[in-house]
Write a structure and sequence with these properties.
Shape: globular
Oligomer: single chain
Largest sheet: 2 strands, antiparallel
Strand content: 5-15%
Distance between the termini: 25 Å
Number of domains: 2
Helix content: 55-70%
Number of strands: 4
């Protein structure tokens, strides 16, 4: 066994040990999700270097999770809520999203209801109705609501810095293994509000996939992960 092969084995055996620790000891507690998102960020640093930031995390999740088709999707309901915070200048875009994607809050009482698309699909379905500045604003705002970015901002950052899951997140995630929507009552408005959840079991599967896929790449190109950045 060469030195690089030994380094690859040692490095990824360590992360697999950490993954197994989560599964065996705290997969049913918030600590498990905290550790999983922290380890994902550590792997992202190993692959891309630099300081902890959303772009690095996002690239790693998309390229190594084996779940790009899921993580590159845009949460259309959360995108609508994000646009509503921009001082009323997005009313035309919001009305278009509600009409084109059927994202009324009452729709999400249906189990499995999901209208999300990736950035290409979003642009294709809206571009003929919007002028250029409106389309640019929509696409720029939509990037924040990619599933991979939601995993960073609403999970990794909230979990690590505040020891909490996202506010208003559905608490029934134990019954789900994939990202899902539900409609919960907003206690301040007494109206239903659409909530989005990435259940911990899906995050754990993402971590396992990322470890294995990154390891396989290092083996394929004979790369020492202790050297950090490949490119």
């Amino acid at each position: 066994m060469t030195l690089i092969e030994k380094h690859i084995k040692h490095y990824f055996d360590s992360f697999l040990y950490l993954y197994n620790y989560i599964i065996e000891n705290c997969s049913d507690r918030i600590e498990g999700a905290i550790l999983a998102t922290t380890y994902l960020d550590s792997l992202a640093k190993s692959r891309y270097g630099g300081n902890s930031k959303s772009e690095r995390f996002n690239n790693f999740i998309l390229n190594y999770s084996g779940q790009r088709d899921v993580y590159e999707k845009i949460s259309i309901p959360l995108l609508k809520y994000g646009l509503q915070k921009q001082s009323g200048k997005c009313d035309t875009i919001i009305n278009l999203l509600e009409r084109e994607f059927s994202i009324g809050e009452f729709e999400f009482i249906k189990v499995g209801y999901d209208v999300d698309v990736n950035i290409v699909g979003l642009e294709q379905r809206t571009m003929k109705y919007l002028d250029e500045p409106q389309l640019r604003l929509l696409i720029k705002t939509a990037d924040r609501y990619k599933y991979s970015m939601i995993l960073w901002y609403d999970y990794r950052c909230n979990l690590v810095h505040e020891t909490r899951f996202p506010k208003n997140m559905a608490r029934t995630f134990q019954n789900h293994s994939e990202p899902f929507y539900s409609s919960l009552l907003n206690m301040s408005t007494k109206m239903p509000q659409t909530t989005f959840c990435i259940p911990p079991v899906f995050i754990f599967r993402t971590l396992q996939n990322c470890i294995n896929n990154y390891k396989n790449e290092c083996i394929a190109i004979n790369w020492d992960p202790f050297n950090y950045i490949i490119d």
